[in-house]
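Q: I'm writing a short explainer about Adenylosuccinate lyase for a general audience and would like to include a description of its predicted shape. Could you first generate the structure from this sequence?
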Amino acid sequence: MNLTDITPAIALSPLDGRYQKQTSPLVEYLSEPALNRERIHVETEWMIYLAGGDDGRTSYIPGVKPFTDAEAAYLRAIVGDFGAEGIDELKQIESVTHHDVKAVEYYIDRRLDKAAEALGADTELARLKPLVHFACTSEDINNLSYALCVKQAVEKVWRPALEHVTDKLAAAADTFRDLPMLALTHGQPATPTTLGKELAVYVYRLRRQLKHLDSQEYLGKINGATGDFAAHYAALPQVDWVHVSQTFVTERLGLDWNPLTTQIESHDWQAELYGIASHTNHILHNLAQDVWMYISRGVFAQVPVKGATGSSTMPHKVNPIRFENAEANLELSCALFDTLAATLTETRWQRDLTDSTTQRNIGSAFGYAMLALYNLDGGLDSIHPNKEAMQAELDGNWEVLGEAIQTAMRAAALEGREGMDNPYERVKELMRGKRIGKKDVEDFVATLNFDAETGARLASLTPATYRGIADRLVDYDA
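A: Of course. Here's the predicted structure. Afterward I'll give you a sentence or two in plain language.
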């Protein structure tokens, strides 16, 4: 049997197959049916708004009376009732029109034809089919629908998942704020820090991105075929169409109004958003790699999952697969976000359709990002600090105290104390490329002309206590 003959159809993308459970929340906002539902929403809401809406205005369109509450509710129910049957029906209409937005228009027309069955013979909805898509080009509907889809996906799915992982890191940073660990710079032993402070660095970085997200604009326009309101003013010059456009976008849809566009909304807001998303992914990628290396080094121990196999041939292994999966999916997400940001801001003069097919991959970009967050969330739950290994690293690297000693020598020299010349070179001679211990440090400090307090402070230092104010830095927030 050919796999293509199996029904229901087998998913090509792992996002809709193997990982469907983890990415399914995005279907509500970034799937093709979700986009069509928003198109229906924009079209019907535009009708209600033009007719005077439910805010007591007179109609902008001569011959059209303001809708009754029941009529407005009927139109909005077209959106609310859009389910499996509606999806199939719309697909059938599009198979004839070969135009997705025109199919939505005809889908609404069919509901208007049936309005009298629900509302009675007095309703005029059936004769108002010309009001559907009034003065609109397809991109008027599409840009608003995409903005609504993406805004909801970010605010209701991706951002909460990102904040959840960030808060989990913040809790771990607070718990381990005092837990000393050896730092490595260039892969070499360096000034010690605390595990909490190192995790707090990521918390700070991620919360900055969350702040950027919270100030993100979601722009929309509804201004006709080339952005000039030409058809609007040709038909009804007495209407302030700029005001109508602005208030509809901002007050009715809750988006930010773009007053100057070609046929398409310029997509700059999308490029900005996807830039934030890609940058966030890179921070998370850095986190995944760091944790992976901490596991390899022994700073973190993993909690084995009962029944799980780490290796097909080496039974002892517990692979850091969650962090490896996160890395890979973040890279895929970044590739898509970077492509979206680069291509969506370009078009040929007024319009081409490159953005149409490109924007259909927005869901995949967020899907891979969500899959990465899912893996990071589970990965963080599966590790804990290996305090014995961390202490052993510190005890094996007393040479990291060389920085403290030579810096204290410099301060003493500046105060005028004798015998503090060439501090860097003298400490380097004692410690570089060597393994030294507590006694070596104490003996060296004893040979120097420090005042009693400084000498005692340096002599009492250990790699575990030489960590500055790392524990207090955890409290800084973005």
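A: For your explainer, you could say: Strands lie at 180-185, 188-194, 219-220, 256-257, 300-302, 383-385.
Q: Perfect, that's easy to follow.
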